[in-house]
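User: quick one, fold this
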Amino acid sequence: MTNHTLEKLELLLKSSGYKVRYEKGNFKTNACLLQNSKVVMVNKFANLESKIAAVAELARTLEIDYNLLDDKQAAFLHQLKQTQLQL
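Assistant:
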């Protein structure tokens, strides 16, 4: 659980056409996907582990086109979808 992990998740989403924004908010899950848009909102006041867990969970559930990703990102997404984060 490092900043590098969060950056990899952000890059994965950005490569898939999503925008990642950090805003203050009262998110129960520390992140959300805005309806009918490709904007992921992350609670900027959440701790690093919570941010990573929330963004990873969203990435796991989104329909991401593997053709938009490079080989490393596709492998990372595949691994992410195969595993559950343990906090």
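User: anything notable?
Assistant: The helical segments are 3-15, 48-61, 71-82.
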